[in-house]
Design goal:
homotetramer; 186 residues; YutG-like; 9 helices; 64% helix; PgpA-like_sf (chains A, B, C, D); Put_PGPase (chains A, B, C, D); YutG/PgpA (chains A, B, C, D)
Amino acid sequence: MDQPKEKVPYSLNSKKVADATKHWLQKRGVTIDEIAELVMMLQRKYYPNLTMEECVHNVEQVLSKREVQNAVLTGIQLDILAEQELLIPELQDMISNDEGLYGVDEILAFSIVNVYGSIGFTNYGYVDKLKPGVLDRLNDKSLGPCNTFLDDIVGAVAASASSRIAHRKQAEREVEIGEDVADGDK
Amino acid sequence: MDQPKEKVPYSLNSKKVADATKHWLQKRGVTIDEIAELVMMLQRKYYPNLTMEECVHNVEQVLSKREVQNAVLTGIQLDILAEQELLIPELQDMISNDEGLYGVDEILAFSIVNVYGSIGFTNYGYVDKLKPGVLDRLNDKSLGPCNTFLDDIVGAVAASASSRIAHRKQAEREVEIGEDVADGDK
Amino acid sequence: MDQPKEKVPYSLNSKKVADATKHWLQKRGVTIDEIAELVMMLQRKYYPNLTMEECVHNVEQVLSKREVQNAVLTGIQLDILAEQELLIPELQDMISNDEGLYGVDEILAFSIVNVYGSIGFTNYGYVDKLKPGVLDRLNDKSLGPCNTFLDDIVGAVAASASSRIAHRKQAEREVEIGEDVADGDK
Amino acid sequence: MDQPKEKVPYSLNSKKVADATKHWLQKRGVTIDEIAELVMMLQRKYYPNLTMEECVHNVEQVLSKREVQNAVLTGIQLDILAEQELLIPELQDMISNDEGLYGVDEILAFSIVNVYGSIGFTNYGYVDKLKPGVLDRLNDKSLGPCNTFLDDIVGAVAASASSRIAHRKQAEREVEIGEDVADGDK
């Protein structure tokens, strides 16, 4: 092209980043419904009337936060590059083998959980240890793809959606019992 | 009393917690306007048209988040108890002297900054080091009250409001240039 | 007294802070051995030869870090003041009822886990959810004392000791297989 | 090759990871001395007798921690891949333009600072905002290389070394004044 690239100044396009986040989660084999099922598993004992629809909605809201999108895209990117063996050898070894002393995957996961506050930490640690549902599949090293970052990220999105539900349910409950509800946590 | 206390089961009242947060900030001598001035100082070079009204609004929104309210109330509480000399002696010494190796004040501050993502960290560290405006007064040990927690908390609220503005301004800009804006960061 | 208090300038005494940490853990009914048992439970599947002696040693090393001491003392202090009903009413309610949307206890716990890096997060979330051993007793609301902070803190110390063991075991293994071991993680 | 790759099981080699960290910092144009100069700038007002030798030593100790090595290698890796334009387009845009709303660089930086506790946060925010010395050069977008992650990482290593010095100096002071020093913070 005649026009040099520099002529079009960079400008963040939020919709593109949001769309890419959904696209890459799907491309790496994770559906919103599977994440919503983790949320249901974590929350149904506290809210017996919780519906899958609500779980899906809360997962989507978590995924609409830019901090979450940044972590999801960066983590999936590192998984892909590990598969392509394009990383610095020492990093390649640690990521492709999901080395226990490499904790950057958990650091990215925590940047997701943090957005909805500290009450999500426990849920994250719990699903990350038990690896129910989709997490078990993502963590299965025999299946080919490198999901060192993705399994932690999916657990963190589920934990965050659980925190979001806890905040909302409290607000709903206060409305029902006729309290003058504060404007917070919206 | 005839009626035992247990008869009225505990139920979180969000409005009361929100109101207490505002009440105690004011009682400890910090106005919303002073925090908004810190925000203006941090952000005006990036957004020359930023108004004090916007800064005040963003500070209020930050203060409406429950995670923020929890940190503000807990921090102010520890300052007050240090003034009243009601703490375990070793803790009393560290808090009333704002001991450099005691970092729980900064930990609470970070739980505030985290809510609006990692882009607030830099602003927090900057105001906490330079101590402009209200922070200088809060940090003045000769004035009597113990503000070991409060100065960090006020800096964190200002840094969070700055992050919030950065997220909103980007969304506004994308609307103006006619981009189809994503739904995130709301 | 004739001599005014100001004559003895404040000077942090690390030993006193360390001793107070051990003293208050014990006074609140938690022994080092009980924390070591949590560590054993978390780590024995990875290191079948792990001894209780090693677990105790690692818990003691974690408790010798000042960041950990600060969090332990501050958390226990808030539990005690909640028992004495000396807190701001809204905070009193949240802490004495271990309100789910109050997350400062988890924030203090995370400041402990952070010292040994992100690999401790998962262990923390896991024990905090399952509440094995001592955590079950601490979390029993019917027993009287308020342990809103203490149960999270004890879980965090156990998770940190587990991380510490993981780092050390790797170093030992590398020595055994004759690798020229790096000097890190000391 | 006849021998399948699986025959050599993965085994973390700590020395290799440590060496790679130093190698890549140097390759990206950052010397230990430059980081030590940042430390000196941050700490000399508190410790007038602080020597460059001590600063260098403390930077080296920070770089010997595995959590730090993981963050340094991962950050530099993402900078390199951004230069090579090998990233997912949306991530490519954000990293190569050091987008203000992309905060993963700061998240990695914080995983470094965390290792020495919360007292490093303020120093990190301060140098990250003022960009003295080497940080100014790293942040100069006109010079070619992409240092979106590296400038935050270098600031974080300097802030951590400053925290480490603060902890050690306190221990030294307590020895001098004849106190029975606790064993912590070693």
